[in-house]
Amino acid sequence: MTYTLGNAAIGDSMIDRFGSDTALVVIDAQNGVNHHAHWGGSCGHRNNPQAEDRIAELLAAWRGADRLVYFTFHNSREAASPLKINLASGQSLPGLAPLPGERVIVKDVNSGFVGTELEVKLRRDHVSRLVVAGFFTNMCVDTTVRAAGNMGYDTYLAHDACAAGNRLAYDGTSFDADLIHRVSVANLHGEFCTAMTSVQAIGLLASNNVALHRVQGNELHRGSEMVEAA
Prior knowledge:
Blueprint (H helix, E strand, L loop, with lengths): L13 E2 L6 E6 L8 H5 L10 H14 L4 E6 L28 E5 L10 H7 L4 E7 L1 H14 L3 E10 L3 E2 L5 E2 L1 H12 L5 E3 L1 H6 L5 E5 L17
Parallel strand pairs: 2-3, 2-5, 3-4, 5-6, 6-9
Antiparallel strand pairs: 1-10, 7-8
Helix pairs in contact: 4-5
C-alpha cells in the first residue's frame, strides 16, 4: 500500500541531502515481529507486508553510499515475548542482518535510547540526523522517534519501511493494524519527525529535495552542534 505523507504538510525549509551526519536506524527487524498471535491475539495480523523489502532497499542504499547504519535488537524483559536474542525468534529477519562493523544496540524497553549506548555512539560518530525504519510503528519505532525528536536529532521516518500489528483494547476490541500504523505515523509527523517514503529517503542520499519540507516541531535549533560524548 502506498502512503502520501512526504509533503502533506509544508514546513519552512527544504530537506538537505543526507550526508555523513545521517544514519539509518533499523528498529527490531527480528523474526518475532511476525508472531502475530503474541501481539494481537487470535485475530493477530500485521500491515505492510512490503516493509522488509523497503528496509532492504534502504540498507542497500545506505551501505552503497558509505553511510552509517545502526540496528536495535529487542531483548525483552517479558517472559513470553518472542523478542529475546537467545531465541530464534529474536534473530534478524532474513536479509536484514547487520554487517560486520555496523552498530548494534541491544535494548530491553521500547526506546532505543533508554539504558543503551545509542546516544553516545551517535555523538561519537558525529551523527545529528536519523532516518528510522522497522517494527513496530506504534511501539519501539514510535518511542525511539519521539525520544530522538525531543533530543534534538533531525529525524525522518521512512513510514513505508515500518509496520504495525493490530491492537486489542481494554474491552477486547481489535483495532486494525493498518489503522494503528497510519495513526501512529500521523502522530509523529510534524511533531517529532518528518515522515517520507523510502524512495524519497534514498533520493536524499544524492541531492537536496526542494519539493519536500521539514515539519519536525519541538526541536533544538537546526544548526546547533551535537556535543561529542566523552
